[in-house]
C-alpha cells in the first residue's frame, strides 16, 4: 500500500499544471501581493459575465438581520477567531492575518460576486454534499469549489484547469475524466465531483491531514512532498507553508476564509442572488443520438443558454453520438415536454425531414418535386437499446425489425448490426397530366415491406408555403365552397405546422375532422384537411 501511495504522489507531481522557480520556493511571501494576479479573485471575477443563470432582475432576497441593504459589517480579530472556533468540522480552521485578508475579499471587496456564488450554491451544493457524505469526507470540502471556480462550471484557469473543480487535463485523465473535441468531463458536475472526492481520499491516505490534502489539490502532491522535505520533515500546513508555492500559501487561507463566510452570512449582511433554477428543479434524461442543444431548446421552448448552462460538459453545444448514452440535464418541468417531442427530435440522418431539398439554383424544391423512398440502413445496437427503442427511432415496428433481420425473439446485444428500412427524401421525376394539366410524380415509392405505392400530390394553390410543406396525398372532394384533401403526416409534422400550411385550416378543425383527442401525430397517418375555397 505504501509503494502504491508513493507512486501516486510521483505521478501527481508529473501531472501538475503548476511550474515554480527555485527562487519562488526559497523566498516565499506570506500571500499573493496586492496588484498581482490572484487566481482566487479571478475565479470570482469570472462570474461577471455569467449573468443568464442569475435572476438579476429581481435582486437579492431580504436578509434575516437588522442591517441596512448595503451596509457592510466589520468585526475585530477576536470576534472572527471565536466564531471560527465554533464551526464543527474535522478540518482544522485557524484564524490569522492571511485568513482575514480573504475574509475581506469574500465579504467586502467582492461581496456582490459572493452573493452570486451563494445563489449558485443552491444548484451545486446538494450534489456536493451527497457525494461527500457517501464517501465519508468532511462536508466543508464543498467550499473548495468556491475557491477553485466560484461555482462557474465553465471556468478555465490560465494554466488550463477547467470546470467546477478545476482539474488539469492529465490529472483529470487519471481520474477517468475524458476530454474530446465535443465533451469535457471536467465540466460535468457529477463526474468531476466524484473525481475530486476520490482525489481527497487518495491524498488523505498519504498525509492524514486535511489542510495538506487541500494544499496538494492546488499544487500537487509532489510540491507538498518537497515542502515537507525542505522544512525538515514538518507535517502541518502552517509549518511547511514557507516552502510551498506562493499561490498555495494563499489557497488554504482562502478555503478557511470562505468556510467561515459561508457559516456567517447573516453576520456579514450577505444575501444570495436567487438562481433561475435550483438543484431540485432539474432532472436528467439519456440521449443516444447526435443532436444540438439548440434543437432541444427549440422543441421544449426554453432558451438555449439555459440548456448550455445546465449541460456545460458539451463544449460546442452538441451532444455527440457515442457507444454509451449521454446525460442531458433539463428543467424538471420540461422533462415531460421533451419526452413528448422525442420522436420528432431524434431521427436518423437518412430520415431528416427538417433539411430542405433544393434545386440547382439553391431555391427550395416544391413538394411535388419531392418523394420519400425506402432505403436500406444498418444500425449498430448501443448499450441500453432494445428492439422497441430502435423501432421508435426509425418510425417502424418491432415486428418489422424482426422480419427484416429474421429474428425469432426480441433480445438484442451491444454491437449487433440490424437492417432497417428508412424513408429518405429524393427529387422526383415529374410530368404534366395531358387531361387535367396538373403536375404528378412519375416515381413510385417502395414502403418498408417493399410494396410499391403511387405518390400523390396536392395542387400548388392549396399551400400557403410550399417550400416547407410535407409530401401530401391529393385525392380531394368538394364540400360546398370548401375542399377536403388528405395530408400524409411526415416526421416532424405537428397539427400547428399542418394548419399553418393550408388556407383556412386550424388546429381545432384538424382535431374535429380527424377525431383526434390530442395533438400527438404518427408519421404515415392520413389526415383530412379542409381548404377554404
Protein described:
This protein has 533 residues and is of the alpha+beta class. The protein folds into 4 domains: 36-199 and 238-268, no CATH class; 281-344, no CATH class; 347-441, LysM domain (Membrane-bound Lytic Murein Transglycosylase D, Chain A, Roll), CATH 3.10.350; 458-533, Membrane-bound Lytic Murein Transglycosylase D, Chain A, CATH 3.10.350. The chain has 20 helices and 13 strands. It has helices at 2-15, 22-26, 39-45, 77-85, 97-109, 111-134, 144-149, 169-174, 189-207, 210-219, 221-230, 237-240, 246-263, 293-300, 304-310, 335-345, 387-393, 398-405, 495-500, 507-514; strands spanning 282-287, 291-292, 318-319, 326-331, 370-380, 417-427, 430-432, 439-441, 444-446, 452-454, 473-479, 482-488, 526-531. The strands form 6 sheets. Strands 11-12-13 form a 3-stranded antiparallel beta sheet. A two-stranded antiparallel ribbon has the order 1-4. It is elongated and about 90 Å long. The chain starts with a helix and ends with a strand. The relative contact order is 0.09. Residues 1-35, 51-62, 348-372 and 427-481 have low confidence and may be disordered.
Please give the domain count: 4
Give a quick account of the main beta sheet: strands, pairing sense, barrel closure: 3 strands, antiparallel
Termini gap: 86 Å
Integer-rounded radius of gyration: 31 Å
| Class from secondary-structure proportions | alpha+beta
How much of the sequence lies in strands comes to 5-15%
Number of DSSP strands? 13
Helix content: 25-40%
Helical segment count: 20
What is the mean pLDDT?
Answer: 75
Which runs of at least 5 residues are low in confidence (pLDDT < 50)?
1-35, 51-62, 348-372, 427-481
* Lateral strand order in the biggest sheet: 11-12-13
What gross morphology would you assign? elongated
